[in-house]
Amino acid sequence: MRRALAACLALSLGAAPVGVFLMLRRMSLAADAISHAILPGAAVAYLASGLSLSTMTFGGMVAGIAVALLAGGVARHSVIREDTSFAAFYLISLSAGVLLISARGGNVDLLHVLFGSVLALDDAALILLSAFATLSVAALALGLRLLVFECCDPAYLARVSRLGPLAHYGFMTLVVVNLVGGFHALGTLMAVGIVILPAASARFWVDSVPSLLVAAAALAFAGSTGGLLLSFYFGLPAGPAIVLTLGAVYLLSMFVGPRGSIFR
Amino acid sequence: MRAPLLVFDKVTLGYDRRPAVLRLSGEVAPGSLLAVVGPNGTGKSTLLKGIVGELSPMDGEIRLGDARNSSTPSIAPTDPATPIAYLSQTSGFDVDFPISVYDFAAMGLWREFGAFRAFSRAARERLAEAIATVGLGGLEKRLIGELSGGQLQRARFARLILEDAPLIVLDEPYNAIDEATIADLAALVRRWNAEGRTIVSALHNLAHVRREYPRALLLARELVADGPTEAVLTEENFARARERMRVGAC
After folding, report:
1. B171 and B154, same structural domain?
2. Which of B18, B41, B155, B233 has its CA 20 to 30 A from that of A214?
3. Quick one: B56 and B177 in the same domain?
4. Do B172 and B59 share a structural domain?
């Protein structure tokens, strides 16, 4: 349980700020697509070497980055827009993943991939999650000015700097890193919840970028801790309990938040 | 005679192989205050995009002199380090993005400070001064999404001030902008020119051009006339411009 709490803290610090930028770039659904795309990578790794932390992380990472790059590249160089491009590639990737899993027959272990196992994380997984969170926070802190400008006025940045593509692809890599970290704890399908929901909730409370980053991480930690406690005391699966709690925070924020909520 | 700052050498510019500006030749001397005029769809914006390097010529070339000492043309316009400040016609940025006026204007310091370096005290003073110059003093913390159209244009001009560029290219800077803002920004443009900067603006308000711009370039896909504003903005030249556009449309 203490490990699970530490995992939630790491995920909140890493994933929620990334979610803020996804929201500001109107790419929330791209994160959803990438999270689905991670599945076949993890599945292939699982088929190759069983339930191994490092290979499944590596497999998920490769699949996630491949889909992010392919989808982004096709959107930039063809008539297809980014949303359609992401949808197309994640569907290809997800169906390949489902086919691979069913080809080997069902397996209880594989449920961990889909729905996570935050209450059964070992030290190695916890270190991995913390490393990802540290990497993510450090990268965001270093690249904050670049990323803010790239989100706000990409055409302007392209005129004064060559770093625009680095900002875009670097950021997409961070998204994948956080989703892969999240899938160990929450599963591939639930990982995107801790990325998007706290960011969306934070939007109802504060409006500057720095406040959004802090508020999202705080709401993510509060929500995931709450979900963890619910799952612990009522014997619920942890992943869905955490994401549902985060969802409840979102719905609450939507009604009572001081900025642009439903009643104001 | 100083070497020209900009040289158009039979340049053809366009999109998807459809030329919008045809075989334009001409020169812009450093320190010019030049208005690019012409009916809608005559390639004014296209020409400006060519100047700032957003669009590569399909044929011919645009050469850019070293604006700081106006020696031989040397800098390639596509080099991001080229000191051209450019105000595009459509804002192109996400006005819902939660960025303050202060941070938005601070983008103008990118060439000096890049992604990582902290702003010096002198830079922060310039930033505050630029915001005050465009009349947004006191609104530094306001988000750009909360500004009116005129205020937003003022914020974009603050960013231009900070770029401190010797060549400033403005594409329809006063479209849908209130009169008070136009007056303030036009005064700023005069000040830039008095500081020795070269200004090239695409404009459609001819009264404004006659009042503010000593030189004009009339475009109707091809060059119609180029020179002192009064000699360019004549009824005869406009008739020729309309004629060209009609022929071109067939």
Report:
1. no
2. B155
3. yes
4. yes
Arithmetic mean of pLDDT, B41-57: 88
Which residues does chain B have within 8 Å of residue A163's beta carbon, measured at their own beta carbons? 115
- Judgement on whether residues B243 and B174 belong to the same structural domain of the protein: yes
Nearest CA in chain A to B49: A159
Q: What CATH number is attached to the domain comprising B17?
A: 3.40.50.300
pLDDT tens-digit map of B167-222 = 999 999 998 899 999 999 999 999 999 998 999 999 999 999 999 999 999 998 88
Location of structure tokens 């060439």: B111
CA–CA dist B51, A110 (Å, integer):
58
Q: Which of B103, B113, B159 to mutate to test the interface with A (most CBs of A within 10 A)?
A: B103
How many Cα atoms sit within 13 Å of B111 on the Cβ side? 19
Which tokens go with B120? Answer: 């010096």
CB B130 within 8 A of CB B158: yes
With an 8 Å Cβ cutoff, is B115 touching chain A? yes
Number of domains in chain A: 1
* Residue B18, Cβ density class (10 Å: 0-12 exposed, 13-18 middle, ≥19 buried): exposed
Number of helices and strands in chain B (H, E): 9, 10
Is the predicted ipTM greater than 0.90, yes or no?
A: no
Domain that holds residue B107: 94-164
